[in-house]
């Protein structure tokens, strides 16, 4: 049993972030009433409180705000971006899936290419999951606006797996057209080349977050680099590229020796890319999320919680619980009692009011949320028998710990 302070909503906890900027700037929310969220200063890992969730810096140093200045006007990049990017003639924007700032810092002595870049931590979005974060990176929108609010979302009473673009009936590309669910254009509608794996070309998720981009396929890491350099040589002003190896290794092996080896491999690939870029071409690297090693610490929901459920969505470290009709308040209380020692147990209203998914929460995205969120504070995952994959996941992400929220922003100029 977790005791609750008198006069506090059950499960409610204040967010952790850097100290509020004295130049407070407010934006009004829409859809669920006025959501007032203060602007925050650039993130500083040293001042974060591990007992509190780390909220994204949607008004500043956040992955959702990186691409727009790179595409439209690098010279006008915000002050929190490295100075070197402002003089770039061309930009290569490489997204390394699964590379957290803290994991990179722990291995900095083994790195050559990444360590020679101008580096600083920024925040990703919530939840810290690929489907949501990559959509924010490409559209420049917080999740509360683009609507991809998790990797498993409740759509019309059925759970859509966004990465597979499938639900209980199978392939959902016809019944849930990706471009209808998320219509915002990628990269301000500039249609840049996007160097991504060949097998991703026609997937529903590619259509959601890279619609309009010119797909440049690669099959091996060596051809990823070769295709990037080919696009630069062709004079493309902005080249997007995506590599998923770090995330795959972390999921399957955790953060031990295989992860170290993969990071060194990627580091040498980056080093070669920097050395191969012509003068005046900036390489900008960020990531969608960090990682936490969970291993076998998978927690089944308490029977008292399950008895109040109509369903689940979300991810194992940001699990949305959908209450039976009229049961949301009871579900919040019981979930806090049963799982509050391991997680931040919060209501949908709190998530919206505190701007976890951005300063604005539009009605359609809000309708895809559950009633109560289990947001893992400890290195655990919450079990959902319907959330399965080809192998047991050792490394995971989705929650709002510093390990998952803080990602690098790296810049080097050829």
Can you describe this structure?
With 414 residues, the protein is an alpha/beta fold. It folds into two domains: 26-37 and 294-396, Gyrase A, domain 2, CATH 3.30.1360; 63-292 and 400-413, Alkaline Phosphatase, subunit A. Helices cover 26% and strands 22% of the residues. It is built from 14 helices and 21 strands.
Instruction: Identify the overall geometry.
Output: globular
Tally of DSSP helical segments: 14
Number of domains: 2
CATH architecture of the largest domain: 3-Layer(aba) Sandwich
CATH superfamily placement of the largest domain: Alkaline Phosphatase, subunit A
Question: How are the elements arranged and paired?
Answer:
Layout: E1 26-27, E2 37-38, H1 67-72, E3 90-96, H2 101-106, E4 118-123, H3 130-139, H4 143-146, E5 152-155, E6 158-161, E7 166-167, E8 170-171, H5 178-181, E9 193-197, H6 204-209, E10 214-218, H7 221-233, E11 238-243, H8 245-253, H9 257-276, E12 281-286, E13 292-293, E14 298-299, H10 303-306, E15 309-315, E16 318-323, H11 328-339, E17 343-347, H12 348-353, H13 363-366, E18 372-376, E19 381-382, E20 395-396, H14 402-405, E21 406-413
Parallel strand pairs: 3-11, 3-12, 9-10, 9-11, 14-19
Antiparallel strand pairs: 1-2, 4-21, 5-6, 7-8, 12-21, 13-20, 15-16, 16-18, 17-18
Short synopsis of the structure:
This protein has 414 residues and is an alpha/beta fold.
List keywords for this structure.
single chain, 414 residues, alpha/beta, Gyrase A, domain 2, Alkaline Phosphatase, subunit A, 2 domains, seven-stranded mixed β-sheet, four-stranded antiparallel β-sheet, 14 helices, disordered N terminus
């Amino acid at each position: 049993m977790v005791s609750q302070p008198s006069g506090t909503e059950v499960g409610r906890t204040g967010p952790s972030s850097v100290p509020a900027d004295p130049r407070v700037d407010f934006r009004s929310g829409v859809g669920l009433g006025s959501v007032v969220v203060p602007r925050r200063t650039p993130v500083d890992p040293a001042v974060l409180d591990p007992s509190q969730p780390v909220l994204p810096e949607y008004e500043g140093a956040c992955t959702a705000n990186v691409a727009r200045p790179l595409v439209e006007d690098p010279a006008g990049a915000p002050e929190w971006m490295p100075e070197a990017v402002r003089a770039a003639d061309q930009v290569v924007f490489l997204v390394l899936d699964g590379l957290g700032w803290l994991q990179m810092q722990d291995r900095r002595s083994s790195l050559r290419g990444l360590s020679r870049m101008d580096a600083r931590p920024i925040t990703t979005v919530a939840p810290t999951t690929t489907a949501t974060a990559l959509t924010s990176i490409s559209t420049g929108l917080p999740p509360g606006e683009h609507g991809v609010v998790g990797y498993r979302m409740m759509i019309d009473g059925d759970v859509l797996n966004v990465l597979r673009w499938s639900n209980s009936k199978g392939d959902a590309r016809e019944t849930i057209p990706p471009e209808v669910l998320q219509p915002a254009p990628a990269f301000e509608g500039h249609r840049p080349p996007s160097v991504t794996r060949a097998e991703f070309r026609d997937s529903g998720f590619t259509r959601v977050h890279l619609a309009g981009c010119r797909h440049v396929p690669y099959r091996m890491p060596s051809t990823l680099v070769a295709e990037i350099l080919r696009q630069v040589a062709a004079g493309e002003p902005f080249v997007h590229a995506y590599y998923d190896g770090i995330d795959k290794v972390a999921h399957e092996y955790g953060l031990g020796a295989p992860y170290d080896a993969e990071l060194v491999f990627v580091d040498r690939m980056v080093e070669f890319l920097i050395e191969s870029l012509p003068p005046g071409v900036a390489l900008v690297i960020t990531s969608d999320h960090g990682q936490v090693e969970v291993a076998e610490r998978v927690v089944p929901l308490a029977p008292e919680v399950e008895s109040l459920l109509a369903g689940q969505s979300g991810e194992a470290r940001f699990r949305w619980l959908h209450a039976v009709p009229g049961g949301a308040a009871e579900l919040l209380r019981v979930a806090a009692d049963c799982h509050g020692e391991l997680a931040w147990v919060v209501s949908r209203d709190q998530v919206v009011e505190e701007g976890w998914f951005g300063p604005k929460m539009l009605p359609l995205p809000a309708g895809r949320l559950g009633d109560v969120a289990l947001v893992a504070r400890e290195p655990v995952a919450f079990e959902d028998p319907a959330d399965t994959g080809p192998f047991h996941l050792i490394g995971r992400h989705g929650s709002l710990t510093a390990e998952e929220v803080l990602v690098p922003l790296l810049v080097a100029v050829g």
